[in-house]
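User: Quick sanity check before I run a bigger batch. Here is a single chain. Can you write out its predicted 3D structure?
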Amino acid sequence: MAPPALKLSEDEIDDLLYFSRTGDKDELTTMLSSLAEREKVSPAEILAGAKDEGKSTCLHMATGNGHAEIVSLILSHLASRPKEESKAFLDTPNEFGNTGMHWAALGGHLEVVKLLVQAGAAPALANDKNYVPLDLASFGEKFDVVDYFLKEAGMLEDDNAEGGLDGAVANVEIEDEQEEIVEESATASAQK
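Assistant: Done. Predicted structure follows.
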């Protein structure tokens, strides 16, 4: 999303991240507007360009701290962007592969997790340790978030196949293992 000509100072990036982390909506809004006007870009492009040295964004900071109002503000700026750009920003990983969804799940911020899911963020991207947000919520004993993810997965399952997994495997027949061994032995003997 961020154009190559975007010139944000380290202090400006730090301020944007700080306002997102602390939930200071007024300061974040003012700064986004000011920088967008100066750079002649949208606030969404400013948000996309504001990353710390660990590649964490304003979205990471807001989600990790459970600031639903800031997350909603960020999402409102993304709404004017092409869907692919918005999705890419929502699923932007930091240097450890964690997205805003990972941070929200780890912190047990259910309202934020729901906002992200509704906005189209991927709920099952793995980080560099191969953990998905559900894993992080489980490790942190954030069971309301775990339950939400499992419920959402069940609804997706139901949408994908009538009856979910039960419907998908209803007509699958499993041969008796003993029968299979006998058939393999007969085949091997015939080949000798």
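The domain at 10-171 is CATH 1.25.40.20 (Serine Threonine Protein Phosphatase 5, Tetratricopeptide repeat).

User: Great, the batch can go ahead then.
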